[in-house]
Specification:
two-stranded antiparallel ribbon; alpha+beta; globular; 65 residues
């Protein structure tokens, strides 16, 4: 059983709060765009990804599964 990270890039403001919560999964680069480093990360980072989704001010992150 795994899970998938989905980002609505139309809503994302690339403010990097998600990167602070889960740097193994999210990265805002010098071009000011968010990149998902792992679309299907391991269960060991689920709590961090869920925290990232919860702290996203635009609710652009969804955890599926």
């Amino acid at each position: 059983m795994g899970f998938r990270v989905v980002v609505d890039f139309d809503r994302c403001e690339s403010n990097a709060l998600c990167m602070a919560a889960a740097p193994e999964v999210f990265e805002v680069r010098d071009d000011d765009f968010l990149y998902v480093l792992q679309e299907e990360p391991g269960e060991d980072v689920r709590a961090q990804v869920e925290a990232a989704a919860a702290t996203c001010p635009t609710q652009a992150i969804t955890v599926e599964g």
